Amino acid sequence: MRIKIIGLSDTGQVREHNEDCIASDESLDLVILADGMGGCQAGEVASAMAVKTILQELRGLLKTLFRNQRHAQQRYHYATIQLEQAILKANQVIYEASAQQTRYQGMGTTIVAALFNKRFVSIAHVGDSRLYRLRGDEFRQLTKDHTVVQDLIDAGLLNSEQARYDARKHWVTRALGIDKQVKVDIQEQNTSAQDIYLLCSDGLSDMLDDTEIQVILKRTNRSLESSARLLIEMANKKGGDDNISLILVRPLPLQKSWLQRLFRG
Q: Is the pTM of this model over 0.85?
């Protein structure tokens, strides 16, 4: 199973420059989105470092690894592990750059990445950039925000509607580059050719609620290009308070997966 990918990033209506970074590698069926933070454009540096490091690590590790694994199930499991390890490497690179260069002190970035295989997707994230799945009529956020507000929701002190307007909604509790060690949330989900996956920065999810996003994805008759453009347009119409970045992915049936292309036998 291969995938169709559409990615867009927009500065928005308020910010002077874009600190988000998105990337994909169709040979690995990999997509990555990072939302940087830090003064003097350091957030822009952090997000770019994260994406570059993850791409470099996975391009080398996966192609070597899967030539040496005999069983498909083992290969899929190792893919998830390598995705996590690549993100941990990115954390190390950003943290060391921040410690060594004064202009980069305090920089960091969120990250959300998805690695699609024949029957499932490996998902990893740190921070409040999100991954959603549209499956039939069900639109579901698969990632869980690492924020103070999410912790308050979990504790029963806020509901989701109150959280949208809480002044602390941008206070992340985890990000790459802030500490020497970071915990990466990883998961594996089954995929279907009818799915649409959305990775996005909070510049989109802050402007549009889940229902609005779902309506747009369904209204555009499953055209990823139309959906992506309309999501950016509507977020900007609602204020565009932050950079707006998204990646839309749809699995394609009846195609060889990247594992099949890399490993034969």
A: yes
